[in-house]
Amino acid sequence: MTSTQLYLRLLCYVRPHWQAFAVSILGMIVAAATEPLLPALLKPFLDGTFVHKDDWVMRWAPVFILGIFFVRGLAGFFRVICHSLGRQPGGDGFARRDVRQVDDAADPLL
Questions:
Q1: What is the mean pLDDT of each run of 10 residues along the chain (110 residues)?
Q2: Per the domain annotation, does 41 fall within a domain?
């Protein structure tokens, strides 16, 4: 079996949850696209604030930075929520474990 055949076979399991899968993929793309955005915008913000003392940049730089973090957080939220929607009930996810199982698995020195 080739890797393409294996991938297509695994995608059959995703078919009932294709909307959540699509939103999850979109969330990952948006989160990945905003990663280099912050360092790319920091230099013009710092130059406009400290070097050129531009009032517009001083006023709007914090708004843009908070907006980038808001979009990143929203994309990450949708990615995580949509990943968890595809789980089967009674799965072995951490949220479904009994507290006693987690305590028993913990390091006894804690």
A1: 88 82 88 88 86 88 91 88 65 47 51
A2: yes
Tokens of 7: 């991938």
Which pLDDT value is given to residue 19? 85
Number of structural domains the chain divides into: 1
Domain membership of residue 54 as a residue range = 17-105
Alpha helices, DSSP H only, in 1-110? 3-14, 18-34, 37-46, 55-85, 99-105
Give CA separation, 17 vs 22, 52, 81, 96, in Å.
Answer: 9, 52, 13, 20
Measured CA to CA, the distance from residue 67 to residue 71 in angstroms comes to 6
Asked if the structure places residue 73 within a domain, the reply is yes
CA dist 83 and 21 (Å) reads: 7
Q: Return the pLDDT at 52.
A: 86
Q: What is the pTM of this model?
A: 0.61
